[in-house]
Amino acid sequence: MTAFDYSAAPYAVRDDIGREHRAFWQRLAEPGSWWAGRERVAIARASRRAWDCRLCAARKAALSPNAVQGEHDDDGELPPVAVDAVHRIVTDQSRITRRYVEDNVTAGLSKPAYVELVGVVVAVVSIDEFHRALGLEPEPLPVPQPGEVNRYQPAMLREDIGFVPTVPPEGAVGNEADLWQPMRTANVVRALSLVPDALRDWRALASAQYLSFAGMQNFIKDEARSLSRMQMELVAARVSAVNECFY
Amino acid sequence: MLRASAQTTSTELDIQAVNGDAGSAAIGIEFGPELMRFAESVAHRSADLPKRRQELIEAAGPAILVDAAGVAANFQRMVRIADATGIPLDSKAATASRELRAELHLERFPTARYSLPAEVKMDA
């Protein structure tokens, strides 16, 4: 059976959306830079379980997430520190702090591994949320593929924004030349660049679900979309406001 | 981006739509109230999502529903990237959006703390 076959969906879904969802599902199953295929699929599974996790619900209601201790609803496939990170990113992302990320390093979740984990979680969230928004069932997770992680890190990194090292604006050269046009980037683009494939994944998904980098320069209307740019940005801004996203 | 697209198209806009005012969303944006309510239902993961979906289909049709679902899902991702990595506003955007942030009271959001100290430094 073909993954993301939208032909039976009650609404016509653009071909590029199905194509990018299938392409990500294939990459999800393969070894990444810091997590094996089996672990990446386990991260995806944990992302789905987080929404109904009782510990996450109790923490979300508490003044501080650290005030509530307990165990996440989890199947034991990942180290507890990774499960906690996945669940917080899904259910309580606005209270993630630098100290939390640093403490996770001490507990065995390195910053590159954390960044790849963030990349997998957010990609799965965006695909699953697309389905939920349209009333479609979530796609079954892919079968993990064997293989080794490559432990790749960009040659040029800087710790000048956020909690993790990122490729600086002038660092899109060599293997990273495709990440952005020289010196034309933004912090949200740099955010996952410690693991370049994680940035490539979000860019590919965004190009189908929202706009490509080039398409973002068009403030009127992309001909391939039914929404005007103003309509798109109203949806984007309202989702961000509900999530209390300052960025 | 919302204000920039309104300025580019010389469209009147009431920015309070961002904070969930349906009357504001009706100004200058076709199907604005339906799009706004659908977006917030997705983001809140509300039980009224089927109702909001139907409301949007009836007002605007299925193609707009699908594209709106794509954008909403995309920004369910983007907020998590920004917050999980603690990135601050880009310095140009921080300066350009100061008035807008005040208008919308965005500094009430917890993650404002990653951007505001930099801005204070910039002002000093």
Annotation keywords:
heterodimer, A: 247 residues, mainly alpha, 2 domains, 9 helices, globular, B: 124 residues, 65% helix, disordered C terminus
Describe the protein.
The complex is a heterodimer of chains A (247) and B (124). With 247 residues, chain A is an all-alpha fold. The model of chain A has no long low-confidence stretch (mean pLDDT 95). The relative contact order of chain A is 0.14. Chain A starts with 14 loop residues before the first helix and ends in a 5-residue tail after the last helix. The radius of gyration of chain A is 18 Å and the shape is globular. In chain A, helix 1 runs antiparallel to helix 8, helix 2 packs across helix 6 and helix 6 runs parallel beside helix 8. Chain B is mainly alpha-helical and 124 residues long. Chain B contains eight helices and no strands. Chain B is globular, with a radius of gyration of 16 Å. Classes of the chains: A mainly alpha (247), B mainly alpha (124).
Helix content of chain A: 40-55%
Largest sheet of chain B: none
Flag low-confidence runs of chain B: 118-124
Radius of gyration of chain A: 18 Å
The pair of chains with the biggest contact is: A-B, 73 and 72 residues
Average pLDDT metric of chain B:
84
N to C succession of SSEs of chain B = HHHHHHHH
Percentage of β-strand residues of chain A: under 5%
By DSSP (H or I, 4+ residues per run), the number of helices of chain B equals 8
Strand content of chain B: under 5%
Computed over alpha carbons, the radius of gyration of chain B is 16 Å
Q: State the separation between the terminal residues of chain A, measured CA to CA.
A: 40 Å
Number of helices of chain A: 9
| Shape designation of chain A | globular
Task: Tell me the helix content of chain B.
Answer: 55-70%
Short account of what is shown:
The complex is a heterodimer of chains A (247) and B (124). With 247 residues, chain A is mostly helical.
